[in-house]
Amino acid sequence: MTSWFFDHYYQKPVISAAEPASWRFQIRAATPDDLAGISQIIAESFHAHDGFWGWAFPLLRLGIYEDLKHRLSSPAPHHVCLVAIDTTAALNPTLVGTVELGVRFNDSWVATGRSFPYLSNLAVHPKYRRHGVASKLLTSCEKFSQEWGFEELYLHVLENNDQARQLYLKLGYEVYKLESNWNKFFFRPARQILLQKHLGIEVD
């Protein structure tokens, strides 16, 4: 990643029309200090916090923490974890969202016979959903993918996650493949959709 790209794209807070005028968000690379906040947001987004499986929540969160800690301490050549920060209160910035981007090599998901960028762990704090945070994180991943020299970006979404699917389709993602994934916790198949987006050519 070039210093120009980081300085001009990631250091400047931006506001979209969908956000309250009082909210300002900054997208930046994650640091070890962000691990606890990232783990909490991902765990709350993908796992039940209470109910029958509530007892397992601290263990799931710890597992997410340790996995991400390892990836941040030993990063692959093409890997980045991004966070969205609410900078409204300058003295108390709040981590409100996260996403990871990496490169897969000859994975069976994509029959390209080559490496491809894959987006995962997109999660936003419930209070900040529907305010443009997820869109900013996705756009940031697209910028990284282009910087790395790729023309497509891939991600998975559950078939029954209508809100996420609508967001991705609105941002230009298209269905690449419909898959079945066995849910080991509930012993039933959970269908996933592999989405693909063709990235536009950047103009300097």
Task: Describe the 3D structure.
- With 204 residues, the protein is an alpha+beta fold.
- The chain has a single domain, classed as Aminopeptidase (3-Layer(aba) Sandwich).
- 30% of the residues lie in helices and 31% in strands.
- A seven-stranded mixed sheet has the order 1-2-3-4-5-7-6.
- β2 and β3 form a beta hairpin.
- α2 packs across α3.
Fraction of residues in helix = 25-40%
End-to-end separation: 15 Å
Number of strands: 7
**Estimated share of beta-strand residues:** 25-35%
> The biggest beta sheet, please?
7 strands, mixed
- In order across it, which strands form the biggest sheet? 1-2-3-4-5-7-6
* Rg, nearest Å: 17 Å
As residue ranges, the low-confidence spans are 1-19, 184-188
Tell me, rounded to a whole number, the average pLDDT: 82
Q: Give the CATH H-level superfamily.
A: Gcn5-related N-acetyltransferase (GNAT)
Number of domains: 1
SSE string, helices as H and strands as E = HEHHEEEHEHEE
CATH topology: Aminopeptidase
Continuous helix count: 5
Classify the secondary structure makeup into a structural class.
alpha+beta
CATH class division: Alpha Beta
